[in-house]
Amino acid sequence: MVAEKEREEDMNVPESLVVETDSLEKAVEDAARLWDILPKDVKVNILEEGKRFLGLFSRKTRVELLPAEDLDVLKGKRLLSEILEKMDMDVEIEVHEDGVLNLTGADAGIIIGKYGETLKSLEYLLNLISRDSSPSRLIRLDSDGYRERRELSLQRVALSSAKEALRRHRPITMEPMTSWERRIIHIALKEHPEVETRSVGDDPQRRVVVWPRGGNRSRNI
Question: What is the pTM of this model?
Answer without folding.
Answer: 0.71
